[in-house]
Amino acid sequence: MPRIRQADVDEVKARTNIADIVGERVALKSAGVGSLKGLCPFHDEKSPSFHVRPQVGYYHCFGCGESGDVYSFLREMDHVSFTEAVERLAGKIGYALHYEDGGAAPETSGRSRLYAANTAAAEFFRAQLLTADAEAGRRFLGERGFDAGAAAHFGVGFAPRGWDGMLKALTAQGFTRDELSAAGLVSTGQRGVYDRFRGRLVWPIRDVSGQTIGFGARKLFDDDQGPKYLNTPETPIYKKAQVLYGLDLAKRDIARGDPRRVVVVEGYTDVMACHLAGLTTAIATCGTAFGTDHIKVLRRVMGDDNASGEVVFTFDGDEAGQKAALRAFTEDDRFNAQTFVAVAPDGLDPCDLRLQRGDAAVRSLMESKQPMFEFAIDRKLSGFDLATVEGRVGALRAAAPIVAEIRDRLLRPGYERVLARRLGMDPTEVHHEVERSARGGAGSGRQEQPRHDSGQSASSPGAPGVAPVTLSSLPRTADVAVERDALMGALQYGHQIDQALLTRALAAPFRTPGLDAVREAVASAPDRTRAGWVTDAVNSVREPYRSLAGELLMTPFPARNEEGARASATDLARRLILRSLEHEKQELLGAVQRVPADSDGGRALRMRLRDIDVERQRFTES
Question: What is the pTM of this model?
Fold first, then answer.
């Protein structure tokens, strides 16, 4: 396979802002001069330890140790090859790649072909919605208050009723039947290979970066024997437990909101209705219950590291909708954000609410939201006759486990009082029953498991059995502090300060082994002004010190602004040079005592001592 020219690889990286690419999946906020932070996409955590430094094009997680450049980020997140990562970014910025030996662009394969097939299918379906055969689909949309503009905004399309309309269209574009099968677009049966979606209205399902990864399709015709909704099956790029419909459209407004709010609805038309009514942070699951993986995705997009955010579930008011809310409730403690339930009047879903009562009624759902715990408690109590002693006791036994589920020790007493008021019972009796449930008594549905901020070990790849060296493990001495801060300045701002000065500063070995390993890598970098040099330098650090290099690169540099950071990095380089000169001077003073003053060696030593004093004066005054 032809290789992309290295000059093009470097140019694409230089033209790409890593914060834009990471920001498609992670809500980032300022973390000091030149640094951004958010919740790590590589492991589950409560507090953000994932840092991005756009100027040097690098990311590092202080929790799990993952680090790299924009190419490694795409490779890890989307499981694509290095070549595919470069080609994807080049396509984003409209850069024409060149291949070695004058070769043409290679045929893309694997996951990239699946993305391409889904994109082509989405275009095919959108075009079919304009045909005469799609009248039933257009009527379905119109009856629910969606015009052509709304359909175009959400990419809604139509799958023709024939057996192989899409199959023929995409094979004519060069896709193989194996590729279309792997993408979940065709099925195989007694009739051979045929379109999976036929005679249905089709919604493209996109990942958080906006790439089409699958489809949801609603049947339109009575002779369709399939389910009401049919989704893409599990594929290498479509995992329904991790997909949220509409998140690609909602993520920007979620991140910009104050408070940051996510509205979780049940279906594609509900998402459309909410967005068109002004609730542009609405999303929905795709053929599966809201679960743990969905929470992880949302938390990263929300930047859910404090309690200021809101997650509002707007389920149907029927029994199925209530059960869906209670299923989501069991995962509630995984959110830092506050969780609510909003049930529309008369049990209408957002689509029907908008159709019957207008956009304002959909927006007003947010005014009627109820805390998730209260909703769950009320649902339990609704099955008991609270006018009788037996009913109140039964209700307490049923609802106490819900309050016992509350991990926040400040919230639990408040909800014990809420339950006591609902039942008209003594708060002490309620407290005792809740405590009994929390200890594993009657009604407690699950045992409490130890929880940690990070979902995996903080170790990073290295020598077997050797723990990686980190900043926190370094000795706390003045020498270590100077070496540490100087390397932070060199890694983060080395491309902006005088190269000759930096080269001189890094010439002498450091006294701390881990920091010296990083110094060697930075000093050996052939061109510290080249885009991406710092990634190569960090990757070249020998284990077990590579993670330390990543931390030095990503730890916020102590400065008020970029200008101050450059000045501080320059000053630290001078301090290293002065330290080296002072060390050399002390060695020479000892040597002078051992060599006759009138010998050639003695005179050379004294001349070098004078030169050192001149150099020290120059670096002190500069």
Answer: 0.68
